[in-house]
Design a protein that fits this description.
Elements lengths: L2 H11 L10 H21 L11 H5 L2 H6 L2 H6 L3 H20 L3 E4 L10 E4 L1 H19 L6 H4 L1 H22 L16 H7 L6 E2 L2 E2 H7 L3 H18 L6 H19 L8 H4 L5 H14 L2 H8 L5 H30 L9 E2 L7 E2 L3 H4 L3 H15 L10 H25 L1 H9 L10
Antiparallel strand pairs: 1-2, 3-4, 5-6
Bound molecules: NADPH dihydro-nicotinamide-adenine-dinucleotide phosphate.
Catalytic activity: 4,4-dimethyl-5alpha-cholesta-8,24-dien-3beta-ol + NADP(+) = 4,4-dimethyl-5alpha-cholesta-8,14,24-trien-3beta-ol + NADPH + H(+)
EC number: 1.3.1.70
Subcellular location: Membrane
Length: 437
């Protein structure tokens, strides 16, 4: 094939992105700066030293501006020991992926006619990490596992550095070797493509960076961060945990276990099938997820909220309701997409060839799974009581994320299904919450 024909073929397969999401390059710049900033702010704006949130008088205090201008403050964001530990953790995840046995399964068919093979061993990686953690705590005591609490800022910086390095590497390498690009990440605008992710599936040999980061070094770290927060509370209280901490720890561990146990389910989600691997996913997976989703547990490490029986019952009911909706809705769709329909749900045929469920959870709203996910998020914050609004950051942010994600998915489905999607929307008018939204 002549080189001009090869170039033509490549640009046919990788057309220029002509419409922006996230308000284009300006939005991409703001989020690229805003996500790391917010991750730090949630720490400085909710900690034992500063208060949660800090009193208004201290925020207005000009000393804060002075502090920000000192090199000591900026140096304090870096912690070499935490960075080495973080690198050790990342290496542990890679080695576990490599050595732990697991089936190789096919991903979805890509537009170049190929399928990526993924190794399924996130759950065994999670169990191994939990086993090692339990061993350390049993052998050396809970005080040996409070380092994630003590070195919080250093770990945040290390994870941010990792996401920046990976996104720069992926952006640069996307220009070599005729890579398959993400349809949304090939605009030609550096900051936008860097943020959205230019290459669809950056790989090193058979190691797929995107799916690896999605489930292992960030998500499992979230569980370990929570355990560390519980150890901190345990040590401070002289050997007990509050009911609120037990609930938050239990819910978060369950959520992580559920995600890694159902590893094959991620290969059909938007992040894997559609988005490239850029700063958006790298920072989301590696920094944002473990260090902001664990805010409730970090708060409870220094604020020992007791819920009592009624409070506990309310939190448990909200969480289990959310989990039931989340799991059964995702299960119905996964079964259906894999050719099974055990509940005999009704569906409509489409010109595209794939069918759309029109009863069960998917007949009640177009994203019932988002509603369940959000209810769980709300329950984790309810467990922290009502003394501070800061611990409600997660459900508020998550609501915005899910609404935005629903709009993105709706647009994409409209492109995929055309008139059929309009007909489906008439049959299922609610977007996320049945009868409300
Ligand atoms: P969905 O699981 O809702 O998948 C949307 C896709 O499902 C559509 O593009 C379409 O794809 C298919 N679909 C839509 N309607 C139907 C129907 N009626 N019948 C059959 N298939 C249908 O979205 P996501 O991938 O965004 O989310 C997956 C999970 O991840 C959710 O549970 C979500 O809550 C969770 N999540 C969690 C986040 C977190 O930070 N904790 C962040 C984002 C998501 P097609 O027809 O091509 O198959």
């Amino acid at each position: 094939m002549s080189s001009s024909t090869a170039v033509e073929k490549r640009s046919e397969l990788n057309p220029r992105t002509t419409s922006y999401e996230f308000c284009g390059p300006i939005g991409a710049t703001l989020i690229t700066i805003g996500v790391p900033l917010t991750t730090y702010l949630l720490y400085f704006g909710c900690s034992q030293q500063n208060g949660c949130p800090p009193p208004l008088t201290s925020i207005k205090n000009p000393e804060i501006l002075d502090t920000l201008q000192t090199p000591e403050f900026w140096k304090s964001l870096w912690d070499t020991e935490a960075t080495l530990m973080y690198l050790g953790w990342y290496a542990f995840c890679v080695v576990a992926w490599l050595v732990l046995p697991g089936d190789w399964i096919d991903g979805t068919l890509m537009r170049n006619g190929k399928k990526i093979q993924y190794k399924i061993n996130a759950f065994s990686t999670f169990l191994l990490a939990l086993g090692v953690t339990a061993g350390v705590i049993l052998r050396f005591g809970p005080e040996s596992f409070t380092f994630l609490y003590d070195k919080w800022v250093g770990f945040v910086t290390a994870s941010l550095a990792m996401s920046i390095v990976q996104s720069i590497y992926c952006y640069a390498s996307s220009f070599y070797g005729g890579k398959l690009l993400a349809l949304g990440g090939n605009s030609g605008n550096f900051i936008y493509d860097f943020y959205i992710g230019r290459e669809l599936n950056p790989m090193i040999g058979s190691f797929d960076l995107k799916s690896f980061n999605e489930l292992r070094p960030g998500l499992i770290l979230w569980a370990l961060v929570d355990i560390s927060m519980a150890c901190e509370q345990w040590v401070r209280r002289g050997g007990t945990l509050t009911d609120s901490m037990i609930l938050v720890l239990g819910f978060h561990l369950w959520y992580v276990a559920d995600a890694v146990y159902n590893e094959p389910a991620i290969f059909t989600i938007m992040d894997i099938t559609t988005d490239g691997f850029g700063f958006m996913l790298a920072v989301g997976d590696l920094s944002w997820l473990p260090f902001t989703y664990s805010l409730q547990a970090r708060y409870l490490a220094f604020q020992h909220v007791e819920l009592g029986r009624v409070g506990t019952a309310i939190v448990v009911v909200v969480s289990l309701t959310g989990y039931w909706i989340f799991r059964s809705a995702n299960g119905e769709k996964n079964d259906f997409r894999n050719g099974r329909n055990p509940k005999n749900l009704t569906y409509m045929e489409t010109k595209r060839g794939t069918k759309l469920l029109t009863s069960g959870w998917w007949g009640r709203s177009r994203h019932p799974n988002y509603f369940g996910d959000w209810l769980m998020a709300l329950s984790w914050s309810l467990a922290t009581g009502f003394d501070t609004p800061v611990t409600y950051f997660y459900p508020i942010y998550f609501f915005v994320l899910l609404v935005h994600r629903q709009l993105r998915d709706d647009e994409m489905c409209e492109v995929k299904y055309g008139e059929d999607w309009k007909a489906y929307k008439k049959l299922v008018p609610y977007r996320i919450i049945p009868y409300i939204y």
